[in-house]
Amino acid sequence: MARLRAGEKIALISDAGTPLVSDPGYKLVRDAVEENIAIYAVPGASASLAALVSAGLPTDRFFFAGFLPSRQGARQKSLREISAVPASLVFFESAKRLAGSLADMGEVLGPRQAAVARELTKLHEEVRRGRLDELAAHYTTAGAPRGEVVIVVAPAGKEEVEVDIDLMLRGALGKMSLRDAAASVSEASGQARRKVYARALELAKETRKEPPE
Predict the structure, then answer these.
(1) Which residues of 17-32 are buried (b: 16+ CB within 10 A; e: fewer)?
(2) What does the buried/exposed string (b/e) look like for 56-91 if buried means 16 or more CB atoms within 10 Å of the residue's CB?
(3) Over the chain, what is the mean pLDDT?
(4) Which end of the chain, N or C, is less packed with Cβ atoms under 10 Å?
């Protein structure tokens, strides 16, 4: 900042993706803006956009979620919070967590179509497409791929949102009271509490009717 105040020109450059996207470098831009220092972006390759347009999934609306939490419980909670977003979902992920994240996505989001893109704009670029459960199974067997990874997940259709709510409710009902489960899922999904509570009642009745194994 002292050098910028003195009138020098500084470039922030990265050889590992677009600077400031899921990157703390935004703090430098924020501080420069506060002091009325001009900021200019020089566009380059963007992994999130390159993955989106290569995935073969809807591009009219998309939600960039960055990196998911590394712990499974926090990761599933984050996925539940955005499960009903009516847009394609774009994530960054580390190769070593890829299989686990895909499995959690399949559990929380349902059998949506998705694409795993790695090493975009580089020599060994690859895009693998399929359902979330299929992709999770592949990378569980094949192991962690090399390079940087972007995941693109199809948006939830109306029927898929209903399935997501059922999955969320079944998980919540196993840990808390019906009323608390409905409140938690309503908040996470953005669906009306009355509607979620009614569905929770139906699921609870179905569970009681199931014969013992």
Answers:
(1) bbbebeeeeeebeeeb
(2) ebeeeebebbeebeeeeeebbebbbebbbbebbbbb
(3) 88
(4) C
Q: pLDDT tens-digit profile of 139-176?
A: 999 999 999 899 999 998 755 555 567 888 888 888 88
CA–CA separation, 195 and 201 (whole Å) = 10
φ and ψ at 89, to 5 degrees?
Answer: -105, 130
Q: Based on the number of CB atoms within 10 Å of its own CB, is 38 exposed (0-12), middle (13-18) or buried (19 or more)?
A: exposed
CA-to-CA dists, residue 3 to 6, 8, 9, 37, 210, angstroms: 5, 6, 8, 11, 71
Question: What are the sequence ranges of the domains in the chain?
Answer: 2-34, 47-156, 159-209
Backbone dihedral angles phi then psi of residue 150, each to the nearest 5 degrees:
-125, 135
Domain 47-156 CATH class label:
alpha beta
Q: How far apart are CA 80 and CA 164, in angstroms?
A: 8
